[in-house]
Inverse folding.
């Protein structure tokens, strides 16, 4: 039950916005409050500058999207690690 409610929460925090050209923009309206395990994270992207709130969206190995606050130290560390791994 815990994982189900956690998954539902993550699902509700990401909104996909369609633009006229057919491009999809992803926005976050809330972020996780706890550090997620790095072993679950596959990659990341930043939200569009058209979104009301700046965020980092981590994609998990299971295909979920998790919004995180880019000013948190652990988020910055994950980004740095993922950038190094993609080189």
């Amino acid at each position: 039950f815990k994982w189900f409610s956690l998954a539902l929460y993550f699902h509700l925090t990401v909104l996909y916005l369609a633009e006229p050209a057919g491009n999809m923009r992803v926005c976050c309206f809330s972020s996780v409050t706890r550090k997620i395990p790095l072993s679950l994270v596959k990659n990341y992207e930043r939200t569009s500058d058209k979104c009301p709130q700046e965020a980092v969206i981590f994609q998990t190995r299971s295909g979920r999207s998790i919004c995180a606050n880019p000013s948190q130290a652990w988020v910055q560390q994950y980004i740095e690690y993922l950038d190094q791994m993609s080189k």
